[in-house]
Model the fold of this input.
Amino acid sequence: MKNIKAILFDMDGVLVDTEDLHCKSYISALKRYEIKLTEEEYFEEWTQKGKGIKDYLKEKKIKLDAEEIRSVKRAIYHQMLKKQLMLMPGIKTLLEKSKLAYKTALVSSSYRVDIDLIVKLTNIGKYFDVIIAKDDVKKVKPEPESFLLAAKLLEIEPRNCIVVEDAEKGVVAAKRAGMICIAIPCRYTMNNDFSLANYRVEKPSDVLPILKKY
Done:
């Protein structure tokens, strides 16, 4: 068995219930430009595949400034966070127990400013030795760069890390990084392809028995 020394957690959909808030804020932002984004498009392109607003505008051949739209989206998203943000059920207990036995990292494809607000609102920063944001890497998930950076900063070999993810893009990134991956699909990622995950579980408490194997 591999000697696991670190646990790397995705944020959106794993730690906090934000997948739907991201979707709704982008739909609202694009509506201001008279562009209709559907939930199906968002969850397939953004959440599952790891694409973004630049990809969306390019594929749709829409000549608008991606940064401007992202700024509008962020303002809407932050207001939603302040009113609706919730930790995923059972995740606090998993974080508390993980922090006692392992090095830990939060590894997200969200921007640092968004992560900082979520950490402030939920007080979960104390559970992590390292926090990796989109700003810290050149290529986000499904590329492995963010997970490899976390392992480097934790001074742990990738093979000694377990990743906890909720989406296909994160599972692919974890496996490309040479890490063990536990998938906990949320209600928006249930139909993703998790065939590369070492384990697929229903809830955070299901992770603890797996950790004991290592």
